[in-house]
Amino acid sequence: MFTKTTLQNGLVILLKEIHTAPLISHWVWYRVGSKDEPTGKTGVSHWVEHMQFKGTAQFPASMLDKAIAREGGTWNAFTFLDWTTYYETLPADKIELALRLEADRMVNSRFDPSEVEAERTVILSEREGNENEPLFRLGEAIQAAAFRVHPYHHEVIGDAADLRSLTRDDLYAHYKTFYIPNNAVLTMAGDFETEAMLRQIEDQFGPLSSAPSPPRLNRPEPEPQGEVRLTVEGPGETTYLQVSYHVPAASHPDFHALAVLDSLLAGPSNLNMFGGGGISNKTSRLYRALVDTERAVSVHGGWTATVDPFLYTFTITAHPKYRIEKALTALDAELARLQDTPPSEEEVIRAIKQSRAIFAYGAENITNQAFWLGYAEMFAEYGWFTSYLDKLAQVTPADVQRVAQTWFRSNRRVVGTYIPVEEGGAS
Amino acid sequence: MKRWFARAGSPLSGNTLTLPGPEDIARFVLSNGIVLLARSNFNTPSVVVSGYLNAGSIFDSDEKLGLSDFVTSALMRGTQSRTFEQIYDSLESVGASLGFSAGTITVGFMGRCLVEDLPLLLEILSDVLRHPIFPKKEVEKLRAQLLTSLAIRAQSTGDLAALAFDEMVYAGHPYRRPDDGYPETIRAIAHRDIVEFHRKHFGPRGLAMSLVGGIETEAAARLVEQWLGDWQNPQQPDLPVLPELRPLTGVERKHVPLPGKSQTDIVLGAAGPSRTSPDYLPASLGNSILGQFGMMGRIGDVVREQAGLAYYAYSSLSAGYGPGTWEVSAGVNPANVEKTIELICAELRRFVQEGVSPEELADSQANFVGRLPLSLESNSGVAGALLNIERYNLGLDYYRRYESLVRAVTPEQVTETARKYLHPDRLAIATCGG
Known about the structure:
The complex is a heterodimer of chains A (427) and B (434). Chain A has 16 helices and 11 strands. By secondary structure, chain A is an alpha+beta fold. In chain A, the strands form 2 sheets. Chain A has a 6-stranded mixed β-sheet with strand order 1-2-6-3-5-4, sandwiched between helices. In chain A, helix 1 crosses helix 7 (168-178). Chain B is an alpha+beta fold and 434 residues long. Chain B folds into 2 domains: 22-228, 2-Layer Sandwich (Cytochrome Bc1 Complex, Chain A, domain 1); 252-433, Cytochrome Bc1 Complex, Chain A, domain 1. In chain B, 44% of the residues lie in helices and 18% in strands. Chain B has helices at residues 2-5, 67-74, 84-93, 118-130, 136-153, 157-169, 183-188, 191-201, 217-228, 280-291, 293-306, 337-354, 358-370, 372-375, 379-391, 398-407, 411-421, and strands at residues 26-29, 35-40, 46-53, 97-102, 107-114, 208-213, 252-257, 264-272, 310-318, 324-332, 428-433. In chain B, strand 9 (310-318) and strand 10 form a beta hairpin. In chain B, helix 10 crosses helix 11 (293-306). The longest helix of chain B is centred in the N-terminal third of the chain and has 18 residues, at 136-153. In chain B, 53% of the residues are buried. Classes of the chains: A alpha+beta (427), B alpha+beta (434). Chains A and B meet through helix 2, helix 4 and helix 12 of A and helix 3, strand 5, helix 5, helix 11 and strand 9 of B.
């Protein structure tokens, strides 16, 4: 049973009853992410997310963690390009705790100045951990090169310069602007009765006041002006190549044909956040063309459903014996083949079956089900998710060829290479 | 936990509404001794198959360390009747997956598929376990991939700190070695070594598996019997007897320099109990208090929340067959390494000297009991739980008894166990970074 409704204060609610286990997963989504951050304030959304675990008058920091853990629950939060979300998955009879906690911290978080300072170094440490990874460094450089105007320009975690200079007041202002019921979506899946649950939600969230709609940064990225090539140097022994193409937003009608393209070129991406397990990609076209032939050691393709047009990225690990240019040539040849000749009907049917399996695996997990209720709502609506497999089934070989021609042209891409250097590196 | 059993009137009466127990776990012994634990879950259209056999790196020589891992990675590269392409084409075409991984004692496998494709999955599982031919070309491709993985490992501060830690804690013991070997040992492995290792160590003896999903257990057992029941290998050796572990006699330190890295990883601790030791549950609860509960327990509170030194700082207990480890891990700026180690050591001292309070223990006990349904909600969660039952001889009623086992642990037991394993003056401290 699925229900969607809106409280008077504008809070959108999506509920899905699933009675397979005595669990409930509860999520609160805010329409704010790194794309809402102007230069100088990068990383503020993610930092606010951290501060949401630092307590309110009613739930001091240490009490929050303990209260959830004591019930055997799990909770966490994620900040993304487009949204920030918080969830708790708990035994069904303990869910009241999650409702009270989320309603409370939507408006009452303290942002204690000393806590803000302690968290500054934690987040800088998180960033330093990321920087240890060659693919983080490369990805960050590619994103910055791909988006000159659009705020997808920077990584969610933010730039170190801003992480050092953001103030408590910056964080608090961001919180107060975006954490309002009419900018939020509450989703819940699991073992409850909808009517009774709606009353419980109304009790907790109903009294919160709506506020003026937050201002949005609206800086669409101009059409790419040609291929960009870049290199990043750093410690390591392994060369990586990432090739990123500008692709449309999740709500674009081409999304499903792109999903089929993803599946047959690089193996199906798993869009589930929890569970679902991946499917190997050893019979994908690119594995055959790059790895089987030893032009590379591995190849993966990946993308994500976003509000605005973002990137589809191929990640290639170089073969120790061969130059990475060979892998790029092979990738280009495979793309050209798809642009010149539509795939077989069989390949398309195969991609659809793969998606069906991945969806079935993801459905075992209550947390994942509640995740989808909100995730889809962030860039489209829940119907996007429920109609996904049907839409996929309508994709034709000609559609796949067309999206390859439209979106995978070399003048729409950034080619980035991570070059390992001897000690000291370029860090 | 009452509600777990009392869902009268629920529209679904599937057996996922109860914790796994003797009346819904079917245990089969195939004609060749393979043990299968199966449980139906008709709420899902998919199935998970999981298992292990005793063919881990414990059987590798020092010169060819990584052989078990190499063999395991090569199983799906071709069989007497199927090429690498055919194997993966069959699986990937139906959205199924199958994978193997080598550990120190066992080689594990896990596969999943839609119920309709279970016969196919089992047929391929059987084929790659029993009839791999390790085509030379594929072996060489794989060797290059393994060497690249090792090159990536050689740049991972977390991996290298963990390796250095194991070398100190397990000095003189086979567990000191990394299962995936070193570049020189991977290069030393010949094709005949791979064929020979498989011939000798892969067989039904000691093989246990679990199967969970939308299928009757009897039907599942018939399928497994059909594909694996007639497998024989009289050559399979016993597991070697593990030597006694020499305890640490003081504080040992090892630093692995990796210039250019912005963060240093710290791994610090000592040996811990095995999974079958009576100390396991008290140690596990103690570990929760020390570095897990809430936002990473006492360690997280001191290192992350109060000092703001690290994004992650936690403790973990790694317990399996033979001696385990009890360790604290953190990632910090290179300038803060000494300060962090001091804070962690001070916490360890407090932990063993003052012990734990009844309130702290009650919190972690509640957490252990309360999180059980969540860990068992998916087919893969249940499949893992069933394998634990078999591997560590826990009894089919283990998850039903779990709450009383957890609640029976006293604060004194936790403190005593902590004192037995953690000595602030006898620690291994490994660091890796810039």
